[in-house]
Specification:
The complex is a heterodimer of chains A (about 160) and B (about 220). By secondary structure, chain A is mainly β. Chain A has a single domain (about 5-150), classed as PCu(A)C copper chaperone (Immunoglobulin-like). Chain A contains 2 helices and 10 strands; from the N terminus they run ααββββββββββ. In chain A, strands 1, 2, 3, 4, 5, 6, 7, 8, 9 and 10 form a 10-stranded mixed beta sheet that branches. Chain B has about 220 residues and is α+β, with helices and mostly antiparallel strands. In chain B, the strands form 3 sheets. Chain B has a 7-stranded mixed beta sheet. In chain B, strands 1-2 form a two-stranded antiparallel ribbon. In chain B, a hairpin with a 2-residue loop joins strand 1 and strand 2. In chain B, helix 2 (about 90-105) packs across helix 6. Chain B is globular, with a radius of gyration of 17 Å. Chain B starts with a helix and ends with a helix. Classes of the chains: A mainly beta (about 160), B alpha+beta (about 220). The interface of A and B includes residues 51, 81, 121 and 152 of A.
Chain lengths: ~160, ~220
C-alpha cells in the first residue's frame, strides 16, 4: 500500500536471511548472498488460489546482480511478475527473462501494483500471521531463504 | 488462440503475454468508448455518452445467501464504485480495492458513508458470489459481490462499460490468470457511469476525485 508504506517501515517485520545455503554449497558457480539484504517482506492474504510476495531487496555489493527466481513449497508455480497496462487493460506477465536486475548499491522494490513474486495454485491454506518460507535465487548462483508473514489483504 | 502463441508458450515455458482477443472464451468486445473528457486536476475521466447501466442484470450476493437481483445504481445522493475483477487476482485487484478503502477513510465521513463498492467477477467459473461479498468486506463495509446471471449478460455488461478481460488458456483444473480492465467505474443514483478511475491512482487523488464527483452530481462537497 503506497499510502501506508511510510508507517509500515517503522514496524518492519524482521526477515530471516539464511545465507548458509550459499556458503555451504560446493558448486563452484554458486556465489555468495552476503551482499544481499531483503526487507519488508510479506505475503498478501490470498482470497483464492493465487497470491503475491512483496519485498525490498538491496544489493550491497560492488557489481550488478539480478534476482532470477523464487520458489516456495506452498504454490505449484512461482514467477517474477510485473503489471503491464495496455489500453486500460492490466495484464500481469512474467518479467522479461525472469530477471530483475539490481545495480550495485541499489534496491529493487517489489510492491503491490508493481513488481511482485506471483504464486499460483496455492497448495496450503494461508491465514493472516502465518509465516511462509521462500527461496530466492540470484544471478550469481546464490540462493537465500526468507520467511515472510501473511498480512491482511488490504496491506 | 493461434498456434504461434501456443508454440511460444511451449518454447518459453512461461505464461505468454496476453493480448486482447475479441472473440470466444467469454471475452467481452470493447464497445466504442465514445468521447473521453477530463477535468483539470481530477484523476480519471468521463465518457460521452455516459454509459447507462441500471438495466443490466446482476445478482448481488451481499445477503450471503442465494443472491438477489441487483440494479446497478447508487442509493439516492450516493456513489457506487464498480470494479470488474476476480478473486484469484493476486495483485492488481486487491491493490486497487485497498487504495479505494484508504481513499474512503481519507474522505469526509458523511460522503464516504454514501459510497458503495461492487465487484463483478469476470471469472464466474471459479468465483462464488458469497465469496466475492466476503472478500469485499475487507475493503468497504457497504459492498455488493456481483455475478452476471449468465455469460451473455456478463458480455453485455462488459460492452456497456467498455470493460474487457481475457481468461488465460488453461487445462481443466489448472490455475490461471485473467487480464482485465483495471478501471473503477463511478456510478450515480440514476445508474449512469459519471466518472472512471484508472489503476494506479494514489488514494489521496481518488478521494479528491470522488469529492469532486459528489459536488458535480449532487452539489455537495
Amino acid at each position: 500500500m503506497r499510502a501506508k508504506r511510510p508507517t509500515i517501515i517503522g514496524l518492519a517485520v524482521a526477515v530471516t536471511l539464511i545465507a548458509s545455503a550459499c556458503s555451504n554449497d560446493a558448486d563452484a558457480e554458486s556465489g555468495s548472498c552476503e551482499d544481499i539484504t531483503v526487507e519488508e517482506a510479506f505475503v498478501r492474504l490470498p482470497p483464492a488460489e493465487n497470491t503475491a510476495l512483496y519485498f525490498e531487496v538491496t544489493n550491497n555489493g560492488d557489481s550488478e546482480i539480478a534476482l532470477v527466481g523464487a520458489s516456495t513449497d506452498v504454490a505449484t508455480m512461482v514467477e517474477l511478475h510485473e503489471n503491464i497496462m495496455n489500453d486500460g487493460v492490466m495484464t500481469m506477465q512474467p518479467v522479461a527473462g525472469q530477471e530483475i536486475p539490481i545495480a550495485a548499491g541499489a534496491t529493487a522494490v517489489l510492491e503491490p501494483g508493481g513488481l511482485h513474486v506471483m504464486a499460483m495454485g496455492l497448495t496450503a491454506t494461508l491465514e493472516e500471521g502465518d509465516d511462509v518460507t521462500w527461496t530466492l535465487e540470484f544471478s550469481n548462483g546464490c540462493t537465500t531463504e526468507l520467511t515472510a508473514p501473511v498480512k491482511a489483504i488490504d496491506s | 488462440m493461434t498456434s504461434q502463441r501456443l508454440l511460444a508458450r511451449r518454447l518459453t515455458g512461461l505464461v505468454v503475454a496476453m493480448t486482447l482477443v475479441a472473440a470466444g472464451c467469454g471475452d467481452a468486445e470493447s464497445a466504442d468508448p465514445g468521447q473521453v473528457d477530463t477535468v483539470q486536476g481530477r484523476v480519471g475521466y468521463h465518457r460521452t455518452p455516459a454509459p447507462q447501466v441500471a438495466d443490466l442484470a446482476f445478482i448481488d450476493y451481499s445477503n450471503r445467501l442465494t443472491g438477489e437481483a441487483y440494479t446497478m445504481q447508487a442509493d439516492p445522493g450516493g456513489l457506487l464504485l464498480v470494479y470488474f475483477g476476480y478473486l484469484s487476482c493476486p495483485d492488481v485487484c486487491p491493490t486497487t480495492l485497498a487504495d479505494i478503502s484508504v481513499a474512503l477513510d481519507a474522505m469526509p465521513a458523511d460522503l464516504a458513508g454514501k459510497v458503495e463498492l461492487g465487484m463483478v467477477s469476470v471469472d464466474p467459473d471459479r468465483d462464488e458470489g458469497v465469496e466475492i461479498a466476503t472478500y469485499l468486506d475487507v475493503f468497504v463495509d457497504r459492498n455488493h459481490g456481483l455475478l452476471a446471471p449468465d455469460e451473455a449478460a456478463l458480455v453485455q455488461a462488459g460492452e456497456r462499460f467498455s470493460a474487457v478481460w481475457e481468461i488465460e488458456d488453461h487445462e481443466p483444473g489448472e490455475s490461471y490468470l485473467v487480464s482485465h480492465s483495471a478501471v473503477t467505474y463511478v456510478i450515480d443514483d440514476t445508474g449512469t457511469v459519471v466518472w472512471e478511475l484508472p489503476f494506479g491512482s494514489e488514494p489521496e487523488s481518488l478521494a479528491a476525485a470522488l469529492e469532486g464527483v459528489f459536488a458535480e452530481q449532487y452539489g455537495s462537497a
